[in-house]
Amino acid sequence: MIELLTIGDELLSGRTADTNAHFIARELTEAGLSATRFSSVGDQPEAIRRALTTLLPDTRFVIATGGLGPTDDDLTASAVAATFGRELVVSEAAIANMERRYREFGRPMPDAAKKQAVLPQGCEAIDNPVGTACGFMIQDGQRQFFFLPGVPEEVHAMTGFIIEHIRAYCGMRQIIKSRTLKVFGLWESKIQELLKGRLPELPAVALGYYPSFPEVSLKITATGSDEEQIEQELQLFQAAIQACIGEYIYSENNEPLEEVVGRLLAGRKATLAVAESCTGGLITHRLTNVAGSSAYVERSFIVYSNMAKQELLAVPEAVLAGHGAVSEPVARLMAEGARQAAGTTYGLSVTGIAGPDGGTPEKPVGTVFIGVAAPDETMVKKMFYPGTREKVKMMTSQMALNLLRLALLGNTRESGLKKF
Amino acid sequence: MIELLTIGDELLSGRTADTNAHFIARELTEAGLSATRFSSVGDQPEAIRRALTTLLPDTRFVIATGGLGPTDDDLTASAVAATFGRELVVSEAAIANMERRYREFGRPMPDAAKKQAVLPQGCEAIDNPVGTACGFMIQDGQRQFFFLPGVPEEVHAMTGFIIEHIRAYCGMRQIIKSRTLKVFGLWESKIQELLKGRLPELPAVALGYYPSFPEVSLKITATGSDEEQIEQELQLFQAAIQACIGEYIYSENNEPLEEVVGRLLAGRKATLAVAESCTGGLITHRLTNVAGSSAYVERSFIVYSNMAKQELLAVPEAVLAGHGAVSEPVARLMAEGARQAAGTTYGLSVTGIAGPDGGTPEKPVGTVFIGVAAPDETMVKKMFYPGTREKVKMMTSQMALNLLRLALLGNTRESGLKKF
Fold it and tell me: Which residue(s) pair with B222 in the sheet?
């Protein structure tokens, strides 16, 4: 059994949220292991000692983070030494790790940093590939304890070593492979319903659900000793999921939607202009989070006012007055107007009511029209997603990017949207 | 002493990050209390029992979340009953809480929901003002245990009651008042340095630092029994902070920067157009996250290409060719062009290199020019913030909104920016 321990006054005071336990737990789960308990305590030697001596009876491994830095309130190493009756000694391996880091940083090693190399006697240093404070592992009776610094980037870089160590120690010689499918247009419970009884019986393959508004990631993990067989099982499982909900899967490679859309645009040497009303820039913000997006994002128009819609996108005043700014014809004219004005291959538009005010009985908050102007045709889709302003904006940006993706794939049935 | 316990298999598998312990810890700290240990365990009765019976010797209060829902894997109530040797009985108070909630939702109460009203005998129900599952508190020996559902919104709504209960129980009759100052332009360590030895000696006043890129929140908390005196001490403390770093404080009321800027624009009946290049829409996205922003955000131009800068903002081709798109003259012309084209009171512009590519020795990644065109003058500021694409975008949006804020306040010394 494995327990996790996070150490730091900043955790107990609520000043910092602990992300290390969550990260390590997820890595353990994906490696076919699992944690039985997490604990967090402050930076007091007595609190650390108590945590290390009140473990569950069956615990064999303890992974701890925090309190290994150079300052006076980093007390983990000395608390561990006191708990297990060890001397504190200078670890040559830890000194070497620090010297290597400072050389890479191009800075001399300050004397104060050397405190980080003072570790309990008999422990083994764990190399820290990104920071100066190395970790260490120590055996006490039947238990192995691993101590890492608290900096999340360093924990991310060092957890793999610990997991490999535990797996090897326990004789888990299996290979693990995984793949992450990104799903939009179905919530978790609906996916479960659609997949129920439709997946192959493969005991070595596990499926994990990770919902993150407005989408769900499905992680397929296969374990075994034969790499080829694992790959086959992974593909078999993935094919079964594809057969059930394929039209809702926009990436089989864990990419964000804006990256998929960007890849499709770049691959077709196509360019894009967006006309955003209710999303207020969020769609283009997401698109331009992708490095290299200047190759296809030509410009965008954030047309909050009716005047802007008229002047920049040539939406006639009469259409705005007759149908209202949030309407099918306006979304159509906005998409076409953006494409025309910018001279791009595609135009994408959204116009809607993000709330909290501005809703009417006919067009309540969450009513949005999305338009995609392609070279040969324009399609417009109405969506309704009641929620907070923030959620309406996010959902609208996701729907718009997905509609563009489907248009780029030549799929104008918009199947991925029919559930909304 | 207080311990926190979060219950749920989804926490141990790393599927969900625990935010409840962090939230409750912060609330406790602000109420003058503190947690001594957090633990997380899975949804197994035995794991819950062990957690409840292996508390630290001095623990008097335990606040637990999770496992109170209607489904079969919600086992907290029955595990608690078994641990403390109580019968499970239907709680009338819990039934009343549920009926009230379902009435508000306008839906009939399903029979399955009634499981949530089956609680250990002798416990006291804790009203849940936002969900159907009420919480409960139970006394065992010298200890008081509080159990809440795991849904974060419900925890947020119910924690106040528990804190009041603990404070009253311990005879903490003090009043607590707090104020949050938002600081931009100084990192935490610099703020500490500037405040060192400059704050009044008021033992009943505490200062908490909550950094969140690219800004820092300073929370001043004062406790005491005399409301007037607390208010005075709070003001004295705040005034001392203002005297040291006042020019970096953009809100004394915990508002986000986009809300402060929006309030200033609305108060002056001024309108705004933004010309965004490297931020790709993020500035306007932030501005339009504020409800009612359509009153002052007229339109924005996301001008990723040089052609867009020419066509939409009338930046002459010769200036772009002569100085480059990332330059002082182009930022100036973009801000003025946006103001002119949209007919707004203010124009705000950014042009820079967000990276990871596109940097040169003269203009490395992170070089950005920001322009503010006001009715009477235009000011341009150069900034340099090397970092990831995401951080350059975020820092640029923050700098731009802050520069606009200073212009709206008539402060063209740009003092709040001089550190970057």
Answer: B177, B205
| Each residue's pLDDT tens digit, A242-264 | 999 999 999 999 999 999 999 99
pLDDT of residue A415: 43
pLDDT tens string B171-190: 877 788 889 999 999 988 88
Q: Is A106 helix (H, G, I), strand (E, B) or coil?
A: coil
Query: Do residue B12 and residue A47 have CB atoms under 8 angstroms apart?
Result: no
Instruction: Output the pLDDT for position B417.
Output: 43
Closest to B29 (Cβ–Cβ): which among A13, A39, A287?
A13
Which of A216, A221, A220, A219 lies closest to A188 in space, CA to CA? A216
From CA A350, how far away is CA A367, in angstroms rounded? 11
3-state secondary structure B169-224: HCCCCCEEEEEEEEECCCCHHHHHHHHCCCCCCCCCEEEEEEEECCEEEEEEEEEE
Lowest mean pLDDT across A64-68, A105-109, B87-91: A105-109
Residue B16 pairs in a beta bridge with: none
Query: Which of B9, B10, B11, B15 has the most A C-beta neighbours within 10 Å, making it the best mutation to test the interface with A?
Result: B15
Work out the pLDDT band at A412, boundaries 50, 70, 90.
low
Alpha-carbon B206 to chain mean position: 20
* Closest residue in B to A8 (Cα–Cα): B37
Q: Which domain holds residue B71?
A: 2-169
Q: What is the CATH number of the domain that holds A370?
A: 3.90.950.20
Question: Is the pTM here over 0.90, yes or no?
Answer: no
CATH of the domain at A131: 3.40.980.10
Q: A52: Cβ–Cβ under 8 A, 6 or more apart, which residues?
A: A5, A62, A79, A80, A83, A84, A145
Contact A281 B300 (CB under 8 A): yes
Q: By C-alpha distance, which of B176, B162, B175, B159 is closest to B219?
A: B176
Q: Which residues of A touch B293 (CB under 8 A)?
A: 280, 304
Q: Where are the beta strands (DSSP E) in A244-353?
A: 249-251, 272-276, 297-302, 346-352
A11 to B38: CB separation less than 8 angstroms, yes or no:
yes
> Among the three residues A130, A151, A169, which one is the final residue of a domain in this structure?
A169
Mean pLDDT in residue range A386-413: 92
- Beta-carbon separation of B208 and A15 below 8 A: yes
Domain count along chain B? 3
Nearest residue on chain B to A57, alpha-carbon basis: B50
In this prediction, the residues of chain B whose per-residue pLDDT falls under 50 are: 415-420
Average pLDDT, chain A: 92
